[in-house]
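Section 4.2 – Deliverable D4.2 (structural model, holo form)

The reporting period included a commitment to supply a predicted holo structure for the target in complex with xanthosine-5'-monophosphate. Inputs used:
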Amino acid sequence: DWTPASIVDDSVAAIRAQVGDKQVVCGLSGGVDSAVAAALVQRAVGDQLTCVFVDHGLLRAGEAEQVERDYVEATGVDLVVVDVADQFLDALAGVTDPETKRKIIGREFIRTFESAARGIVERAAAQGGDSGEVEFLVQGTLYPDVVESGGGEGAANIKSHHNVGGLPDDLQFALVEPLRTLFKDEVRAVGLELGLPPEIVWRQPFPGPGLGIRIIGEVTRDRLEILRAADAVARVELTAAGLDRDVWQFPVVLLADVRSVGVQGDGRTYGHPVVLRPVSSEDAMTADWSRLPYEVLETISTRITNEVREVNRVVLDITSKPPGTIEWE
Ligand code: XMP
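Output (structure tokens):
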């Protein structure tokens, strides 16, 4: 019988057996999966682990700060933050196809890790230590990710999740994937067992490609700024209404190539719509649209159109999964 404690014991033993005395690097995304995966690896091999937080410019408001502050405070883990927004946004310039975006983001992630890993080795050498090569990369891949990327039995390749399907052929690391057999609720239980703070354990899932797959159309700095502002309003208001744990995920999507006529302030505007996509789900394999109270939707709509100048229309997605996916791309 599996309990959170027995899952922790089993995976700690498995990680030790796999990794030995080698160095391990783990990308933190700010989400619960990578946080729990890293905490398991830290429990298993301690300071052989270095975490890397990639600020790829596709993050939501405040996310980088939250990882640097809350996670490091809770775990004491060794964290390197790299700012590679320019690199990612240059690579994404002109790209509109969702799968191409995912592949590019996945590729840039891995390149970033490889150079971060070289940096870690050099840093250790400069300090007179012998860290050896970094040989392992931790991924917070869950069971549903494996299934949806075609890795499970008889599953179709629905989307190539960057952390499963999008890895390059010449990957320089062996993967450590301690969550590969777990569902989200089990991951949360393991996170609590490991003593991670509730703000991290109960965080809503957020996709690795970030806001890059929530801008329908080309990803640009200006568009990211618009979406970040609208998303921040939706998150704050959902939390203020006490509904953030009931809602599985709340994507806000910018229809960047669509414009519609509106009237804001003194005059006619020709702005962009954002889509609110709150869903309820058990494991992201299926989902239903959340029946949020009208008052909460009203507050979000009013605030977004008042505070985000470029947005003049807020629409609600009332599609379940299937046939819609949770994300729009
Ligand atoms: P969909 O949109 O397929 O999403 O219903 C299912 C769950 O997976 C997340 N998602 C991703 N996570 N890399 C990730 O790490 C990705 O490329 C990716 N695409 C979707 C999505 O947010 C939802 O939780």
